[in-house]
Amino acid sequence: METHSGTYSLIVSSSRRVSEGFWPLLQVELWTPDTDFLQLLTATLLFPRILLFVPFICFKMMLILLGVLILHLIILILLIVSTAASAWKVGGDASTDLWHNCMASNGGVHCKSASNEDWIQAVQALMILAVLFCLFSLIAFLYQLFKMVKGGRFYFTAIFQILSSLFVMCAAIIYTVMSPDDAMAYGYAYVLAWVSFPLCLISGLIYIVLRKKE
């Protein structure tokens, strides 16, 4: 019996280490000469099942992290396009963004700088802050993903992302209230700003509840 005890001990102890890492409900004691045959058989049969369960857990966590990262990249792209695109208001041959007012005439496009009013400058600053904080949030997420202790939460990343959502919300509200009433309709850049607000907020809340796998 002593000849095989080393092999049984390796099987059972390996089962215990895997189960403690991925399935806390499964607790298997180490082999001792007093261990009965039923306990040894249970551990031996359980070991291959746990090994099959481990890749599933790892694959699931990889999908979650990949989904969160893709969502963050989509939000960042939406914010950049919304800030830079010349389509906050469109009408006929004219279009307006946060930086220029453009008019198509004589086969070309003529643009002039946007007004220097305080409200448009506030919208410009808020949209730039939204883009920067979303970018900082992405960098913080990647840093915490590799450097943060296991079991920690992404609170630092979440703070940046939620602040970014608040900035873009304030910018869209100010533009809606303060932009002059004319025949021009709101363009796709304006719509993207409103779309990015809830997505950014949801992303920040996901970071709050997300925990680095132990």
UniProtKB/TrEMBL annotation:
It comes from Knipowitschia caucasica (Caucasian dwarf goby). Keywords: Membrane, Transmembrane, Transmembrane helix. The chain crosses the membrane at residues 37-56, 63-88, 122-142, 154-175, 187-210. This is Peripheral myelin protein 22. Signal peptide: none annotated. InterPro entries: PMP-22/EMP/MP20-like, PMP22/EMP/MP20/Claudin, PMP22_EMP_MP20. PROSITE patterns: PMP22_1. It is a multi-pass membrane protein. It comes from the Eukaryota. Belongs to the PMP-22/EMP/MP20 family. The lineage of its organism: Eukaryota, Metazoa, Chordata, Craniata, Vertebrata. The keyword Transmembrane helix applies. One of its GO terms (cellular component) is plasma membrane. It is found in: Membrane.
